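Protein data:
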Amino acid sequence: MVKPLQPQQAQAIISAAEALTDEAVTFLQGLIRIPTVNPPGHAYPECAHYIGEHLRTTGYEVEYLELTPAEVEELAPYGGNMPRTNVIGRLADPRPGPVLHFNGHMDVVPVGPGWSTDPFSGELRDGRVFGRGASDMKGGIAAQIFAVEAIRRAGLTLQGTIEQSGVVDEESTGNRNAGMGFLVERGYIAAGKTDYVVITEPLNVDNVCLGHRGAIWGEITTFGLPSHGSTPERGVNAVEHMAHFIDAATRTLKPRLQQRLNSHPVVPASASAASISFNIIQGGTNTNSVPDSCSAVFDRRLVVGEDLETARQEITSILEQCARDIPGFRYNYSERYATVPTWVSAETPLVAAFTEAVEEVLGRTPGYVCSPGTDDQRFVVHNAGIEQCIVYGPGEIIQTHNIDESLAVADLVASIKVMALAAASLLGVE
């Protein structure tokens, strides 16, 4: 149940958050300077200890969850056997009370060329912090930590338990993974133990995100028969067969998907429809040989209301039609990752607390939105069975994975205020 704050309490928290601005920015810059690039997953232990040491010095009990080599091999198959370390900090009230868990992922996507600044410098320029992960989502980790610090600096004590976690491998997803998936599997986050979960991904500070679209990441391989390039009639060209399939999918399936719109607003609005894209193609070995295999990696995004089995059948039915129509057409279908769409109710104390906090800080009612991608909310809602799980954090969704990724300091501070007010009203303060 939301416990309304006294006006003087709310103002004290807001003032404390503003006073913490420089500290929060400095902490964020330190996070950005640790290049936790995934794949394969560099500097995870260093980043976990950077977060954990800060939490320890501010009174948290800190635990580092270091995966064994066998667990890394199983849960991070694309991670190059690099170490995986998650961190959890607990600030517990000895009296019984609710548990609010804030979570952010430490890993960032690769950089690429074209940056105007060092992507791991954390440069502060024109009111923005620049660097890979500034928005997605080291800004969220900084905001969640300093939101709780703002409550304490306001001279208030939370009447419940706060947990802060920094996890790995969100960017590489997986039906299971070494980060949030690991925390849920091991019971660190569990129904009956954890009351509220807030994942601090960037969906704009005036939105409360209640879910995400579903996804299938899969690979299709067509098989042919090799022959010399001068006598292609003696072979079966796997690349040409793949081209037939992609053409058929683009002509028949893609238009149908574009007519299926998500039942809840998606940020950005351009991602409101179901979709499929073919993003990697590999086939052939040399110019004068007919290729005997070709693979295509696809990304299928599902809107709320779609299910995985139907989405699979729509793809495989095109493959089967190609097999009937094209002599010698053979294929294999496999998946790396699949998740159903996620959506939670807006009629919960958690959403009410964040709605009131956004109204207090920004002066407007937040949008209840859906993420265009997928995120770690799926583990909490579907695997742990915790419905009171939302995504809220600083940063613009259009900044994620960009060249010159950045975060506005004003958004960082606004999210700190919102999270602090929401946490204080959910747990109660004295």
In short: The radius of gyration is 24 Å. The chain has two domains: 7-212+341-427, 214-339. The first helix runs from residue 7 to 19. The chain has a mean pLDDT of 97.
